[in-house]
Design a protein that fits this description.
Strand order of the largest sheet: 2-3-1-5-4
Radius of gyration: 11 Å
CATH architecture: 2-Layer Sandwich
CATH class: Alpha Beta
Order of helices and strands: EEEHEE
Helix content: 10-25%
Number of helices: 1
Structural class: alpha+beta
CATH superfamily: YggU-like
Largest sheet: 5 strands, mixed
């Protein structure tokens, strides 16, 4: 699944077998993303940023939802 929006919502499932975008939730208008890291000590957020940066080739930033499964993500050109 290709993510090509500048700002988008994501629903994160931490402690998953692998990092992957698994689909899109039409009701919540959010990408569903599995992340390997556990949701403790900010590990899942850090893993999410690394994963999205690798997948999209852009710099990913969590704009809101640092302590929630639902996050607002912004992608910017790497500079």
């Amino acid at each position: 699944m290709q993510i090509n929006q500048k700002t988008f919502k994501a629903i994160i499932k931490p402690n998953s077998p692998k990092n992957e975008v698994i689909g899109f939730d039409n009701d919540k208008k959010a990408y569903k993303i599995n992340i390997k890291a556990k949701a403790e000590d900010n590990k899942a957020n850090i893993e999410l940023i690394k994963f999205l940066s690798k997948v999209t080739g852009k710099k990913a930033v969590i704009k809101s939802g640092l302590r929630s499964r639902e996050k607002l993500i912004e992608l910017a050109d790497k500079g």
